[in-house]
């Protein structure tokens, strides 16, 4: 197919370290194919009045490479692929018109866990998009979807172990999907080689269980496994063992004398699974099913005002100094397991 037109538009989207080449998308349209459509790669459906409006919608979606337009139903389908990479998915489709960019991502490999987006920098340019924000591109802006609850579904802390010899705050966003065979959902667990249950948090039927130094506290709550987003925060003071649980930004439970003086050293940290042994003994019936976002730890007790801000999403990208959400991002396919990474995070 021959190139037939060039178009320059401004993509209205935030991008770290924004430059002119980051926000201006230049694409090379190829000849349209009448009564054809690309199947199996649709990322969005848009209602439009004309084929040119469908093309504009594709320009404005950074992951769009091609579009299908139905002139009778006034439907526009945006796809993240084209017949250049998936010719087997082209199909006869009466009433549809298929159109695609020249895909310059072909042959240009971005790093693992990144997405190649065509049309940035110059006519034959592209960019590699990762799940990080911030001036130094270090703040994790992704959500982790645990679809199965199997013992393969977990995220490991990339630093391998954590050292906690101070007071701390742990915080997490979660949204559950109930599994018929499971009444327990583990948000995270930390084990050492010498102690099972060094620190973990899990949900039960109307209960929350937190363990520190294998000492459990159980509190009654409304069932948080209801398919809605919830924010959880736990604070612990090392000197006295004072602790508090915050749910959705509000202080809900508190106590004292929970393992005072304890130091959690060389702890193995995983999300979505309870460890019965050090990095092992995973039970799928206690695995998490749903979406996790923003799991962080701080080496101090955060104030109730700080926790309320984090729980309001106004500080959703604030990461801990002890454990950072970005350090759970899988570094390769093997560390991702069966987990789906949604980038950017969408808390809906």
Automatic annotation (TrEMBL):
Key words, A-Z: Calcium, Disulfide bond, Glycoprotein, Metal-binding, Signal
Pfam families, alphabetized: PAN_1, Pentaxin
Domain (Pentraxin (PTX)) ranges: 140-345
Secretion signal, residue range per the UniProt entry: 1-20
Keyword Calcium recorded: yes
GO molecular function: metal ion binding
Entry-linked InterPro entries: ConA-like_dom_sf, Neuronal_Pentraxin_Related, Pan_app, PTX_dom
Chain ranges of the Apple domain: 24-105
Keyword Calcium set for record: yes
Cofactor(s) named in the record: Ca(2+)
Top-rank taxon, per record: Eukaryota
Name this polypeptide is given: Uncharacterized protein
UniProt organism field: Nematostella vectensis
